[in-house]
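Reopening: structure tokens for the adenosine-2'-5'-diphosphate complex, inputs below.
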Amino acid sequence: KEYTVAILGATGAVGTRLIEQLEQSTIPVKKVKFLASKRSAGKELTFKGKPVIVEEATPEAFTGVDLVLASAGGGVSKKLLPEAVKRGAVCVDNTSAFRMEPEVPLVVPEVNEKALFSHRGIVSNPNCSTIQMMVALEPIRQKYGLDQIIVSTYQAASGAGQSALEQMLAEAQVYLNNEPMEGKVFPVKGDKKHYPLAFNLLPQIDVFEEDGYSHEEWKMIHETKKIMLDDMDAPELKVTATCVRVPVVIGHGESVYFTTKDQTVTPTDIKELLKDAPGVTLQDDPKNQVYPQPLMAEGKRDTFVGRIRADKENPGSFNMWVVSDNLLKGAAWNTVQIAERLVENDLVRVPEDPYLG
Ligand code: A2P
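Re-run output (same inputs, fresh job):
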């Protein structure tokens, strides 16, 4: 069987990686459709060396499509994915639009591939920071149990999209020219105030909740519980997060502190476990200054883990450093990987009671 695949948001930072990852994937592609806003309609992109003209994303554009890979923003997904499902397409959505819906599986294939079997037309791809943390922590949870996670993120500018990334590079130039820097996009395009990101750190990703957490932090907490325990509020795993935007182009870093149920575990045990874990590359040799870095993770599908060490005052507690390409495992690769698993398991079919938002 061959599939007609639509990429929604094909011209964006994630969209261009979705095209590349689909080119390299095992999915038998009959035809591709590249969809974006009206502004991009008519623009020429390529797929496996052949030209493809970008079309405006409308409900009718999904007619005849089997599989949709979406990354054009939450509002666009909310509006268009139910239309695609109605027309018989299975959608893998990289936005946060449907992640917390009970009918929508939230999947990191290394962790909860099984959830795909109950999909009703839409599957959600988790937040970029959540995904790489899941890849690193799930083998530990499986073997030793997990009581608590405390994470601080160092998130690259590209996570905010192509135009945000270009804005940060322009700010850097302005700073180097000794001109006054003015924030135009960060921390959040739609929020009231803007600050420069170049040569700065912004402890705000997404908007703030009533309780003082940013929505990105909220996502890391609740997505973790949904992916690991199939319950977005599961009390048995304590999770808290601080999310910070840093002036890095590509690649999110995370300082992850975690406590295992088994208090006899050693850093050597954890390293042994992660050495062979799916999707993980262990880079942990401090004597030789070997540790994960965004510049070296860029363009790779794996999640890189290092600096694994015990909190000597709290048995069963550890620190580690986790880095991954936020546009690949954090977005495009995880999305295409989900699509590959859907294809392998013959799940590219909309059931009789589809989820329509
Ligand atoms: P366009 O390039 O035509 O604006 P990024 O995450 O890098 O900001 O990319 C966002 C992606 O979503 C782009 O491909 C963008 O297309 C697309 N997009 C934005 N708004 C819409 C819309 N209303 N309908 C369809 N696609 C959209």
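The first strand starts at residue 3 and ends at 8. Residues 9-15, 36-37, 39-40, 57, 72-73, 76, 161-163 surround adenosine-2'-5'-diphosphate (CB under 6 Å). Marking as resolved unless the reporter disagrees.
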